[in-house]
Each structure stands twice: as structure tokens, then as C-alpha cells.
Amino acid sequence: MSSDKINADKLTGGAHSPLRRKLLLGMAALPAIGLLPRGALAQALPTDAVNTTKLAVTDSTVKVGILHSTTGTMAISETGSVQAEKLAIAQINEMGGVLGRKIEVIQEDGASDWPTFAEKARKLLVEDKVAAVFGCWTSASRKAVLPVFEQYNGMLYYPTFYEGLEQSKNVIYTGQEATQQILAGLDWVTKEKGAKTFFLIGSDYIWPRTSNKIARKHIEMHGQKVVGEEYFPLGHTQFNSVINKIKLTKPDVIYASVVGGSNVAFYKQLKAAGIDLNKQTLMTISVTEDEMLGIGGENIAGAYACMKYFQSLKNPNNEKFVAAFKKMWGGESVIGDVTQAGYLGPWLWKLTAEKAKSFDIDKIAAASAGIEFTGAPEGYVRIHENHHLWSKTRVGRARTDGQFDVVFETADLIEPNPFPKGYQ
Amino acid sequence: MTRTPNSRFFGRLDGDIAGILLLAALLIVVLPLGLDIFRLNMVGKYLTYAFVALGLVLCWGSAGILSLGQGIFFGIGGYCMAMFLKLEASSPEATKIQSTPGIPDFMDWNQLKALPWFWEPFHSLTFATIAVVAVPALLAFIVGLAMFKRRVGGVYFAIITQAFAAILTILIVGQQGYTGGINGITDLRTLKGWDIRTDEAKLVLYFVNAALLIGCILLCLYVRRSKLGRILVALRDKEDRVRFSGYDVANFKIFVFCFAAALSAVGGAMFTLQVGFMSPSFVGIVPSIEMVIYCAVGGRLSLLGAVYGTLLVNWAKTMLSESFPELWLFAMGALFIGVVMVFPNGLAGLYQQFIAPRLRRPAGRRTDEAAGAPIIPPHTAAD
Hints:
heterodimer; A: 424 residues; Rossmann fold; 5-stranded parallel sheet; 16 helices; 43% helix; 17% strand; B: two-stranded antiparallel ribbon; disordered C terminus
């Protein structure tokens, strides 16, 4: 489906939405911005009215936090999110900010270390009194900061696809929860490849384990079979034994959720063992354009990745987004699924604040459900009552140049379901 | 505290006690008055590492046993406390959305249907408190027995402790249904119904922590002043001579290793209480080495130096990372290299060299060893 169609659907569907928001959304698509005099909105909405809980909001500015790892093992993955969030904030400021106030960013480094994340989250909320935080990447860091956000009543926009089993008033999950990422992809591979047997392989922590639990239930529900399930510690680089098992069991599909640096070793060793991904179907839920940089396109070409966004997606929003991203961060940079989800955070927050006419966390949390963003590079997204996003599932096929060809996308938005019945 | 009749020790006692009183005044009066609750809580967190550094001063500084696995004991102490708190936070009412209510949330995610047997005793706070000290001490005893009785020491011992740290991390990460895996044990709420997340609770915990730390410093001082302490120094400098004098060297080493382990574990438990979670990232090789660095920056022969070193390094870490989120690690690296190259005896060495002589001249008193034992050149300690 083309994105024009998506936008058209959206416009008819959202006809009842307030005119003002539609105007603003329309402006988002225009490069010529700044027609409104700066501060006009701020005068209309005095600081006392939009900020009753002593957040860092003045007549002309509002402070937000960015909390990612810029050092340590996770820095490679999280840098894309930081860049996307900064891009979104710069674009919003160019349009006149949020409720007439310029966004000021306070960036903190989580240093790939979970207690540091908790400490910095506390600092952002208690010391800096930021109105929103865009941040976290791994589940472990989110679990570490969640009690902090709930205790001090902050707002976190979390960009990563994750295992689900969580829902909080204080978090908006802009990535996919596990069922959104897994089920449609499995159905597609079953239909397209006639898959009957699956071999599940992942890194050993909560996300791959939960994802594979859901995948296994879904596979077995449809009368197919899991012929192997293996986990390896984070950072593991020896996959020869599991590759031998794969050769013995000859699964129709290898289903991979290996993360981080282990990916490089895994795909290189698969190739070295003579497994040609153009003949052997492999579906991964953990390789985006960012990981492809390390793995090397020639080692993974032919594999399928199941995501909601690919850089090669063809729609006007995405073309604009990719161009703006490259202009700001250099022509060599690539954009993966999580980076795009990071870009959504500041925009969703802006739209929510304008709907709530307030920066108060409680009002933002209450107003979030139903917020729609038509300017999303992935097409159109909407926040569900459970604070996750309605979004599509897409399957891409890895190319040698490090990009994906989108070979499938679901016709409709998939409903987020962080506590899937029958899959637990 | 026993007062030895030896006049040499009277002079030193005064200096040490003055130093401890100064530290106590700083921790209990100055910092709480000068800092808001958020920063104070952070100082409280740093001070939990000071327990580990104290243990290292005895184990490494006094007895010459370099352990690169103190994170193991810090972690186990922390996990014992976290298990108790997690069980309290996982009452059937609080966890009724789970498929098996009444067990910790991560067990439910990992399809466990019942509480594992080794979690059961952690319903009791008394058991958990004893376990905080006993389990790490027992583990240290077993490791010590296996190593020191076979006369494994020096670099080999350091490498083996590293291996243990790596093993324990892998074990915790791999058994996530039982341990919470890489996420650790998170979302701890109350201690016997007392909400540990409130500002008042954090203030109380800070003072408890500071008082415990002062108590531990006095305990360490007592050990160092005793005959035992002098034997430890002797076996560091000339192990064979001590052995030929009829002492069983291994037993002394096992003792000091267990003692250091127990101190680290107390720190770990206090860490869990103040930070509100525990994860394998405090158990592994990197945090263990970091803890050795705190001790080295402070001066590994000085109990008080170790406390100040821990505070300084952690404070620098926080401040630099807040001001320069992209560059701070380089600054930290430069700090460590600088300390090792220029001040091999750390902060305590600086004090000895520059401040103590000035204090001594007008007062005419022996304050040169205010911070502990005489300073020795670095190369003798790791041998």
C-alpha cells in the first residue's frame, strides 16, 4: 500500500479532529514554517496555566531530557536514537516549539550501565524538572528507570521494540511490543515459504526469551513445529555447535533474535558453514540497518527481517525524514527501526501537549490515548489506550548494500497487545 | 578498642581517631546540611562502594592479596537483600495480573509456576540479614581454602578471582527465571512495610549507611592494630619468614579474604536498599576492577584514604558525565593514569607528602600516620 493511501485514509478518518491540530499537522509537512509570530501561543497560554506542577517551563522555553548511552557497549545502538530525537526537536523548534515554547534539551549519558540510567533519570526529574524524557534502549535500562518515573511522576518516551508484559501511565512505548513484531511475520513466512519447521535462536535475556515464547506458541497453535531452541550469552561469538544442529535438523526457517556484536559472528559463521541465506530461509527480529553496518551486507543478504520501519520505505514522509537526517548527521548515516521510533517520541509529545493544552504529566498521560501522527516516516501511527502504538508490521529482505527491500506489509495497523492472552 | 601499652601506638591512635572523627563529621553533619536529598542519596550510593574499598585496604594493602573479584561479594550481599525486598514487593495482591500471583514478576515472565526452594527462606528478614554476611563469607572461605592452602597467590590468585566474577555473572544472566537475568531484581518497594523510595527513607538510610561505615572503619582499625594485623603485614612483605616462624600463613589469608568479602557484602546490601535494585552489572569483572581503582586512588594502605578515594572517583564520574556526556570517559581515564603515574600511593600518599609535614612541625606531634600504616613503594604490594 502506498503512503498516499495511508494519508488519505487518515484524513477521512480524522475529519472530526480539531481544526487547529490539523492545521499544525499540515504545517509539519511544509518546509516554509514560522509564519506564526514566535510566542504568540505562549501569550495565549500563560505559564501558570500550562504548568501547574513546577516543571522547567518558562514563557519561552520548556526543558526535556535525552537519556541514552553515549558511551559503553550500547553506544553504537543508541546513537541513532539520540540523533533522531535531536532532529525531531530541532524541527519542532523551527516550527515554533511546543505551546509556543522552544524545547531545550538536557542530555545525560546512561553509560550502558543500568544504575547509572536510574541515577540520571532521577537527576532529570528531580533536579532539572524536565517535562518529558526521550530515552532508554535495552529492557534492562527501562526496568531500572521505570520505578523512578513512577515515583517522581515523569514521562518517558521509549523507542525500542521490546518484549511487552509492561504498561505504565508514565511511559509511551513508540516501538513495537512483541506480538506486533512477531505474529504477522510468522504468518507471512508460513504462507510465502510454506514453512513447517522452525529453529529458534537468540541471545540469553528477557527479550529473545519472551519473543521466542510467543513465537513458539504461535507456531504450535498452527500445527507447525519448533525443532530447536537455543540461547547464547550476550556477546557470545562461537556459533559453530548451533550451526551444526541447524544442519542436522534442517529447519524450514531459522528464527533469529541474536543481538549486538554477536550478530557479526553469527552471520559470518553461517556463511562460512555453507548455509546460503538465499536458499535457507532465515527470519530475524533483531537486525536493522544499524546492525547491518557491522555484519556486512554480503554476509546477510537474502535474510528476512521483521520490523515496522525500513530506511528504504517509499513514502513522502520517509523521503523527507531520510533527507533531513542525512543533512543533519551526514550522508553515511543509516536509519534503523529504533531510530525511526525515536524520532516519533518528541512529535507525539508535542501533539499530546497541544491537545492537553498543558505540560502537566498527568494531563499528558491522560491525553495520550488517541493521539495521531500523520507525519511519521513509517506512515501513520496512533497511540493506543495502553500507551503503545498502533503500527504496521513489515518484512524486508536484506540486500548486499546494507539496505532492505520491503517485500510485505500488513494491510492494516496492528493493535498493540502487551499482555497477549494465550501467549503467556 | 584495646589500647596497647606501647607508646608508639598511643601517638598513632590519636591521629587515626582524629581522622575518623573528621570523616564522621563530614558524613553526618556537613554533607547532609550542604546537599539536597537527591545528591545526598548519591553520596550514600558512593559510600556503599567504600565498604568494598575498606575490605581491599585490609586484603590488598595490608596482606598483599589482590582480589579482582570483590564485585562477587558486593553482588551476593546485594542480591540477598534484594531477594527479601522482592518477595515483600510480590504479594499476591500486588501481582494479581500475573499468571501465577505471589511470585516475583520476572519468574512469571519465565514461566515459573512456583517459588524456587532457595528463595523460600528469604521471606524472613532475619535470615536475609544473616545471609547478606554469611553467604559471601562462606564462598570466600571455600575459595580461600582451595587457593591459599595450595599456596596459590599473587597474580594467579587475582586471575582466578576474576574468573569467579565472570562465572557468577554468566550464572546470574543465564538463570534468569531464578535471578532476574540481565535486568536484575528491580522495582523494590518496601522494607517491612516501610517505603524505601521516599525522601525520608533515603535520608534515614543514608545515616544508617554512614554509621555502619564508621563502625566498619573502627573494626578494620582494630584488626590492623592487633597482632593479627601485624602478621598480615609481615606475610605480605616476607611470607616465607612468617611461615618459618611457625604461623599457618594460609589461615591468616583465608581470614582476611573472608573479612573483606563480608565488608563488601554489607556495602552491597546497603546499595540495594538505597538504589532500589540489584543487577549482574555489579558482579562482573569491570565493576570489580573499578572497586580496586577506588582503593588505589585513595591509597591502598589507608582506610580513610580508601573512603575519600571512593567518594572522589564516583563524584568525578557523576559530575564529568553530567557536564560532558560524550567525553567524560576520557577524563576518567586520564584521572586514573595520572594517579598511578604521579601519585602511586593515592590521596593518602599526597597527604603524607605535602600536608602532614606542615601539620607536624607546629604541633610537634606524630600525625604522619594519621591515615594508617606506613606508606610503602607500590611494587612490594602486588608481589
